[in-house]
Amino acid sequence: MNRSSALVRTAILFALVATVLAPAAQSVGALQSHPKLIYLALGDSYSAGEGLGPFLPGSGLCDRSPKSYPEIVAHHFADVKLKFLACSGATIAQIDQQVSVLPSRTLHHVEITTVTAGGNDLPLFGLITACVGAVNSTTSPTIKYLPGVSSPTLCANAISGAAKLLGAGINPVTGDVTIPVGALIFPLSMPSPFETRLSALYVHVLHSEGAVKNREAGPRLLVVQYPSLMGSPGVGACLLSATPLPSAGPPTTVGKGGPLYPAFSNANGYALGDINSYVELETSVVAETLRRDGYLDVSLIPSNVGFAPLNCATGTSPDINGLILADTAPVIESGSFHPTVVGQAVLASSVLAAWRAAAR
What we know:
Helix content: 25-40%
Low-confidence stretches: 1-8, 14-35, 250-255
CATH superfamily: SGNH hydrolase
Strand content: 5-15%
CATH architecture: 3-Layer(aba) Sandwich
Number of helices: 11
Structural class: alpha/beta
Strand order of the largest sheet: 2-1-3-8-11
Order of helices and strands: HHEHHEHHEHEEHEEHEEEHEH
CATH class: Alpha Beta
Shape: globular
Distance between the termini: 34 Å
Radius of gyration: 21 Å
Mean pLDDT: 84
Number of strands: 11
Number of domains: 1
């Protein structure tokens, strides 16, 4: 994508954000719903809008943002009430509890539910923290880990633990993440622990809202996938930010030959990319398997439509933050690897498209 088209695309998406954050009555357009119905937004930090403060009053540590995709979607419907329960840091089990605390009278008035789940079970943020290092350039063959934050051992253990949860393994020779043959065959015959947890969550949501097998009517569950976080690593490393590490940091994070930049090594970049891809794949497998089993009210929202992952050569993307470190210490900020305002608008447009389709 050239600079001109990228600027046009960004301008269009910012216009979308401005439009959807206007008073709801002005943006309903052709989208209509029934009075007093509820849009239930479940999930973790990707649904909550982590990193896009100031956060909504009363959201506490959940960090729910008015710039999140649930808030953007809700502004398209003047007669649908948003019940926003997504919470940063929530695991699949905790998202399940978001449903359990709701009274049945609320659940039976739910028109649409969106959910993004699973990243904190791996956990994705822990993987990023354990594997991040520093390089002088993207072609550098040597990566310096951040003392007290990351190391080769911490990274290897984190990747191995996530792979195990996904039903995968680690190739002892190459270090690549692998999936056992048949693990992702339709219908799901060898569910991984990750798939089992997701399936139980989706079924609980559907049953709580009164969904009936083999009848596509009433409550609908829109499963919003995590987008691809980064593009393909380069020959040496995947740059995670265009901003150099703070010079006031620990001695090993200050380069003698110039500034150091946060990065993943080539091998770690590919392994983390595999983990990201398997989360996307297994989420789609669970949704498709439930549909084959008669749960016709489940729809999958592929979040990569129009979403730009982090460019490993530049450490930037209009849609997702790279790695953000505190100014005075090697502490990774919570907004790292989360959608920007523009990225949340991209996710919202995918949800709105699915909602339109479900309403036909």
